[in-house]
């Protein structure tokens, strides 16, 4: 399989929003341009206002090589999770967000890893005054390709493929 896992950070307008809104999408493709139709279709905002703020090939995360295959990988019992955390800085109006990919046995274990590493200097106080994770997404299969993991504690995440403003 010559496809790779891509993570896209999308931005644009949505309805009557006064500020830019964002989303993260994933695609399995050989080239980032192959994902553009699916990214446009998945965008929840104004169709003419979508752009890519950045993309990255995901070939390593959290101590594991990440690869795509035609069949499910059942060797490790681990899964790849996308985790989005929100938090606040005292005295600032806006909520901050950070996200990353984590390898874990469960969503709860991925959340725990995220809360130890993302936004360490922020107050993560939501309605229950406890640290909270905004989103956890299990990534097992993208565009028909199965996600596999192979331990590699010495690996490194790929450099960003693009960062800036790319209208699509």
Automatic annotation (TrEMBL):
Gene3D superfamilies in alphabetical order: 3.10.20.10
InterPro entries from the UniProt entry: DUF1543 (IPR011440)
Pfam families: DUF1543
Residues annotated as domain DUF1543: 17-68, 93-136
Domain of life: Bacteria
Name of the protein in question: DUF1543 domain-containing protein
